[in-house]
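Need residues for this backbone.
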């Protein structure tokens, strides 16, 4: 049985499972996390993938909302960007298991086959953006689930639309209860004021679930939202799930709140719902 070798463990998040869980629960206690009103179901969300010391306080807003929803999922589809340039434009990981200090999770290779994208190991081998979100999933989601990691390096609108449709068709055919998580940090290394301006410009399109406009705004202003591809796939998938689908902003933050630096990396926690 093949199990992916962790790349980010001990750097982006601790080796000790109790320390990981303490970070999460301390963040939940210290944050004001609102209940979601008028929600039929959580379709998915967007969470940051920086080191926990910088962004866990933002990321827990999404995952605590999922925990409070109490849903059990057959599979979590984890869409993450590609920072390394390795692997295919869209690549499903062919390993049978992904592990963290919180345990191992079996990958859903059957659903991957249904989606029909290329499989490999290079897309995720040196990539942190998917791996760092798995401990959140393990800690906050009730019950056992399988993981379907997809590394997205091709950020074109048509690619996102096609992948969303392929995922939608495969999920519908399988009859599985699925959650989709898009991994992304927001504007990188701008002043807090400038970063907020750029983020808000991009978020206007996200709130409308307008992937084409989102992509256009990213290019127009050269906005360094690294997970634009995964976010676009999630938006297109949400529109296929329900005409009542909407995105809500749960929390914002930045690395400067920890480091005190004047140039910061921004983090946003978003939830996609059927309202």
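Answer:
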């Amino acid at each position: 049985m093949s199990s992916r070798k962790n790349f980010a463990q001990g750097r982006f998040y601790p080796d000790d499972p109790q320390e990981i869980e303490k970070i999460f629960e301390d963040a939940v206690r210290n944050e004001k996390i609102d209940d979601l009103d008028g929600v039929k179901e959580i379709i998915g969300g967007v969470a940051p993938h920086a080191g926990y010391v910088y962004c866990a306080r933002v990321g827990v807003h999404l995952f605590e909302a999922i925990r409070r929803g109490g849903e059990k999922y057959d599979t979590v589809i984890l869409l993450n960007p590609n920072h390394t340039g390795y692997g295919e434009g869209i690549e499903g990981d062919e390993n049978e298991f992904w592990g963290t200090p919180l345990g191992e999770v079996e990958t859903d290779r059957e659903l991957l086959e249904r989606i029909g994208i290329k499989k490999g190991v290079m897309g995720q081998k040196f990539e942190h953006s998917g791996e760092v979100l798995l401990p959140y999933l393990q800690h906050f989601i009730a019950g056992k689930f399988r993981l379907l990691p997809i590394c997205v390096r091709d950020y074109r609108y048509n690619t996102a639309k096609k992948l969303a449709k392929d995922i939608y068709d495969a999920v519908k055919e399988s009859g599985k209860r699925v959650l989709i998580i898009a991994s992304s940090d927001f504007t990188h290394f701008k002043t807090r004021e400038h970063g907020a301006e750029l983020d808000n410009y991009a978020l206007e399109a996200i709130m409308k679930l307008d992937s084409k406009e989102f992509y256009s705004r990213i290019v127009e202003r050269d906005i360094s939202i690294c997970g634009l591809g995964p976010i676009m796939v999630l938006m297109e998938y949400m529109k296929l799930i329900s005409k009542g689908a909407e995105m809500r902003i749960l929390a914002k933050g930045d690395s400067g709140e920890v480091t005190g630096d004047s140039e910061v990396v921004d983090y946003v926690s978003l939830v996609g719902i059927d309202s």
